[in-house]
């Protein structure tokens, strides 16, 4: 293609945009290749997506159409669909550019249209891509391309004599002419797809990432946290995501320089085998061009590509860990509709106290000063005792920040008239919420300290309902979340929140705008309209009434109704995950069994005897009917575990109290690919490395432990100067 005259296609019509659904089976094949899912499932899912169906809705209420795909598989289809559309859009852009340059041949157009990989597509476009003026461009302007072609033909005799013919006003010598020709040859070599792919393979298999400290910044205080990477070498293919991201951050902050190493001698020899045909006069020039091409063009470009690929993989791994952690945190155990006294502990500024009713509404707030410098423990104990009785408190929530242990110890000294449960609650992100517009909207007449205390109390009542108000990145359950692709991270975390909210279901009469906005088919504006309707008309009495909400049309009702719950509704199915479009089949089952719907609900023995095949139709099949029966057995069952009371070792207050061999209770507060961090009741969290999680090899930390899990750990080592604690999961 490079050396021959190009046959130009005269395109008289403008290229038509590639519509995803009009591009035949190509899109289906592309998605199938990426996901491995059945063709029919993909086709039906794409059709549902075109009808504005959400992932939670499809996974729960369209199992017959999707082939019983779960949310993860549906997400895979959507991602593959996005990738296909991006590829098609890029093809259109490239074809348009090539047409404008008048270099679009039939073969090239066919190759572009048939490719299914973005990398291959970019390689095809590379020779024609508009770029900054290169050394090869300058050589061409000097008329040296014919000389480059003569050298590449590899049959020239007396090459020096041939090169002398190209001496001109701009070329002073034979050596300059040969050098210019080599620049052109180097560019040709760098554009060869087979050579690029060979080096990509070498990078994928054998590349070594090497770091070197920037000496001028070595002694900076901030640099010390990266000292492990001042001199580091590791296989690029084997480097864990957390280490790659740490190295990248160190490089971005200017403390180290990163280089990619390959076996240069072997690669140059392999390229030569692909290009040099004989041992003629031209072979030495080509050998020089090969080396120049590799060092100046191929290695820098493809190393950058390899690092970008490694970054993408590291991002995906980190985002996956964050998403798993977030899901576990959101689905944390709720105390439920109980009255809570919440405390945001502090020393000098005191402990902020709020009393909340069963719905999380603020009843009372004030500040006590039990700790230094005021040390008014007697007054604090009296005040807490009075408040718990006055507001009929069921449980106490204590934030786990500054003065948490001291406050917990104080609370446990109090002899309450009623048996109150005491919980230590994570404060992560509470300060973000307290200063947010959502918090100001909820509590316009209170300051941030009161809002923060309310958030702590509500987290105990219902972690999901409260945590959805906070930007997920602020909750602190990930690794290097600020270094990964922020758009990708946001999309994944939003998907996790949406999945959790819809898996649990939402009480439409008590839910906040933040919680409602994540319900399938609702969004922020409709959530606001639901709250306006509730304010004007009182609580919703049945699901049909939801249709009266301004701008909540048929599609929004279809997508959301099954996930919205109405307690004590006229129809008991309104407080279940049974969708209104399925009510008729439930009514038919009840009639056939000569029972009312209320008598049918919870009658497990009767429900398990029902022959579901009798009720299968073209719309409602066995998977959906099975879901209906499961829901009727325990309608509105919360999938989350019950809250358990937990107490830290009261003798451990600081890192100085730790010693090797101690067994301590702890709560998992973060999970990474290299292990998990555990709160043992002091300022510093301890690390259980993957090697100390189990006796066998651990490939997935989440398979062995989950966020907020209450565990027993053994102290392996304590590094007081560096404030590092190594732990081991203790198993009886």
From TrEMBL:
SUPFAM superfamilies: Nucleic acid-binding proteins, Ribonuclease H-like, RuvA domain 2-like, Tex N-terminal region-like
One Pfam family from the record: Tex_N
Domain S1 motif: 661-730
Coiled coil regions in record: none
Gene3D superfamilies attached to this UniProt entry: Nucleic acid-binding proteins (2.40.50.140), RuvA domain 2-like (1.10.10.650), Tex N-terminal region-like (1.10.3500.10), Tex RuvX-like domain-like (1.10.150.310), YqgF/RNase H-like domain (3.30.420.140)
Membrane spanning residue stretches: none
Highest taxon above the source species: Bacteria
Official protein name in the record: S1 motif domain-containing protein
Organism (species): Mesonia maritima
